[in-house]
Design goal:
Elements lengths: L6 E2 L10 E7 L3 E3 L3 E13 L11 E8 L9 H14 L6 E7 L3 E8 L2 H9 L9 H14 L6 E8 L10 H15 L2 E7 L5 H10 L1 E7 L5 H13 L1 E12 L4 E5 L11 E10 L3 E12 L9 E12 L5 E14 L2 H4 L4 H24 L3 H23 L8 H27 L4 H16 L9
Parallel strand pairs: 3-16, 5-6, 5-8, 8-9, 9-10
Antiparallel strand pairs: 1-16, 2-4, 4-14, 6-7, 11-13, 11-15, 12-14, 15-16
């Protein structure tokens, strides 16, 4: 039976975006009794390729590079230069690049650039030295943002750093206030890249959060080009920013959990779920746990429209907030045992996957408490569960409507298994350093909880 029983609730002009919003539910039928039941709901967002019907503005990237002395070690500098070189060589004809370097002081390396050879020459003339003064880098990039603020382009700001701030303004609140001002004043999204194990993890994650961008952890210098390349590809494929789901429930239905996201106190039976950037050719799933209340009032209805899901985003082309898609989810009451026992197996498997991921938080906490052996044992147990789930999903047979969700689930569990193997090696290499282990595991945990195809290779 098809469990994708959603009706298109509202058509808007922005539906020209190549976005498919689908909703599946664990149970299609509930007993014809006054009671409360648990219902899991999976919301799937799939985006297609950019088409000629949507305008696509040139991309404009501002890079602020930490060139302090600590970047000279462990091949960090050479790999950082290679990562930026990768961006330069993959720019589209109309794209523009600005590069600022900072250590104890800062300077503009080049601006408004599109000439590959000139940019590469300037890039390779840099060398690392001095301290780490992030505010100096921000002070240098602000005039560039102001100078080109009227240009019709999609703007993004990358901050790459490997160390703790030890010069200039070091207060996190003041730095984050500046990040917020830059984002709001110049309509730019800010991504942060932490390199190695010595950077200020809390600050770098907060910079991305306050800047409505992504946070990337670059564990080893050898992976720098790959990670920065994934980030730049995501920028080139950007469709919308500050995207969110607005989920409205009816008939006393309550959302009690949003896997991978913080649940907020419900107002008028609504939840706003921030999902960040929407990219072309991407896919993500958001899983909800709800309590459905069957009342006497519902006994009179043949179908109950208990949930409305709206997808909103700010279009990067015109910076206007738009309703992209909206759907309504229905269930029915039944006295037929066969109907009541019908369950959507793929939603059940997604619930199991999310529970594994939730336990991954415990591993991170154990590492922060320096309980490395306990963390390792739990990590190995969760890895075994993920491998067992991989086998289950490989053997599953689903309807055509659930085929894409199955494919997503298979890719997700494959990525979880790969990351667990990489984590096992990190446990082996860094067994005496619980802080490093917590940093790596915490990053993998966040990626797993909010899995998207675009970040599958991280």
């Amino acid at each position: 039976m098809c469990f994708f029983v959603c009706l298109l609730h509202f058509n808007v002009a922005s539906s020209s975006f190549p976005v498919e919003l689908s909703i599946s539910q664990e149970k299609r039928f509930f007993p014809h009794e006054i009671s409360t039941y648990t219902q899991h709901v999976n919301i799937q967002i799939k985006t297609g390729s950019h088409t000629g019907t949507q305008s696509k503005l040139p991309r404009e990237l501002f890079i602020v590079l930490d060139s302090s002395g600590s970047m000279a070690g462990a091949n960090k500098w050479n790999n950082a230069i290679s990562a930026i070189e990768h961006i330069i060589r993959n720019m589209n004809t109309d794209d523009k690049l600005h590069l600022v370097q900072y250590n104890s002081v800062s300077s503009v390396v080049f601006e408004n650039a599109h000439d590959q050879q000139a940019m590469l020459k300037a890039l390779h003339a840099l060398y690392p030295s001095g301290g780490t003064n992030l505010m100096a880098g921000l002070d240098q990039v602000i005039p560039l943002l102001k100078k080109y603020s009227d240009r019709s382009s999609v703007k993004r700001f990358f901050i790459l750093s490997d160390g703790q701030i030890n010069e200039g303004i070091t207060d996190h609140n003041l730095l984050l206030k500046e990040i917020t001002t830059i984002k709001n004043t110049y309509d730019v999204t800010i991504c942060s890249f932490g390199i190695g194990y010595d950077f200020d993890e809390k600050l770098m994650t907060n910079i991305a959060d306050y800047g409505s961008g992504d946070y990337f952890f670059i564990k080893g210098a050898e992976s720098m080009e790959k990670v920065v390349g994934i980030a730049y590809q995501g920028f080139q494929n950007l469709m919308g920013i500050d995207a969110y789901l607005k989920v409205t429930t009816k008939y006393d239905t309550q959302i009690i959990d949003i896997y991978g996201y913080d649940i907020k106190e419900q107002e008028e039976q609504q939840q706003i779920i921030p999902i960040g950037n929407l990219r072309y050719n991407d896919m993500m799933n958001i899983l909800l746990e709800t309590k459905v209340k069957i009342t006497k009032e519902l006994h009179e209805k043949s179908e109950i429209d208990f949930m409305i899901v709206e997808l909103w985003m700010t279009d990067v082309t015109d910076r206007i907030l738009k309703l992209v898609a909206s759907k309504t989810l229905l269930f029915s009451l039944s006295r037929d045992d066969k109907e009541l026992n019908e369950l959507n197996e793929i939603v059940q498997r997604l619930v199991e996957l999310q529970k594994i991921q939730r336990h991954e938080r415990e591993v991170t906490e154990l590492l922060r408490e320096q309980r490395v052996k306990d963390a390792f044992d739990l990590s190995q147990s969760l890895a075994a569960q993920a491998k067992a789930m991989k086998d289950k999903l490989a053997d599953m047979k689903v309807s055509d409507d659930d085929r894409e969700t199955l494919g997503y689930s298979q890719r997700k569990v494959n990525t979880m298994v790969r990351r667990s193997m990489e984590m096992a090696k990190t446990f082996q290499d860094e067994s005496e350093n619980s802080e490093k282990l917590a940093m790596v595991h915490g990053y993998y945990q966040q990626l797993n909880e909010r899995h998207s195809d675009a970040h599958e290779d991280l």
